[in-house]
Amino acid sequence: MVERPRDEAGRARNPRPRDRLGRPLPIGSVGVPRIPDDLNLPPQQTLTFAQQLLNDGLAFNAHEVLEAAWKNGPFAEKMLWQGLAQYAVGITHIQRGNPKGARTLLTRAIGRLESHQRGNSSADSPAADRSPGDAERITAGPPEDAPATDLPHGIDGPGIIAHARRLLAALERGEPLTDADLVTALRRTPPLP
């Protein structure tokens, strides 16, 4: 078995460079800058950094930034950050030409974000992970009378969910998606004065 580099806590670390889509390159190749394994930013900085990476077409790196918030954030927000990370991975799968992976991750992201909006911040898996029939419900949207709460840190849950649904619909129809189609705002725009 090949020995992998490990940190002080024994967690495996991958020193290989990666391309723009997060795919490993041969050792010694020049890739995009890596996100530090120990990244731990406050929520607003996390969202700003992830948004810039998404805008630059670096969804895999955005996923790593959001995943760090998921792993380091408060328990009550873990499902929220996990949903955002899965959203970014869904976009990564689109960029890589993997529509099946994109559908799976975008559906999970919608389920987690909707669950958090309804005030269910438990670590339990949302319905998207439980049965195939739930994916159809998630793609269609929640019932009209489902109560929703604002997401913390100004995160635009309804906007992200709507964007993920548009991507899912385009994938279902086999429509090509441009780089511009893959970007949406992670935070709500402040109202104009």
Textual characterization of the structure:
The protein is mainly alpha-helical. 47% of the residues lie in helices and 0% in strands. It has helices at residues 43-55, 59-72, 78-95, 99-117, 132-140, 157-173. Helix 4 runs antiparallel to helix 6.
Salient structural properties:
193 residues, mainly alpha, 0% strand, globular
**Low-pLDDT residue spans:** 123-135, 142-147
Portion in strands: under 5%
Cα(first) to Cα(last) distance is 62 Å
Largest sheet: none
| Order of secondary-structure elements | HHHHHH
Task: Give the proportion of residues in helices.
Answer: 40-55%
Based on CA atoms alone, the radius of gyration comes out at: 17 Å
Overall 3D geometry? globular
Which structural class matches the secondary elements? mainly alpha
β-strand number: 0
Number of helices in the DSSP assignment: 6
Q: What's the pLDDT, averaged over the residues? A: 85
Brief summary of the model shown:
The chain has helices at 43-55, 59-72, 78-95, 99-117, 132-140, 157-173.
Q: Secondary-structure map with pairings?
A:
Elements: H1 43-55, H2 59-72, H3 78-95, H4 99-117, H5 132-140, H6 157-173
Helix pairs in contact: 1-2, 2-3, 3-4, 4-6
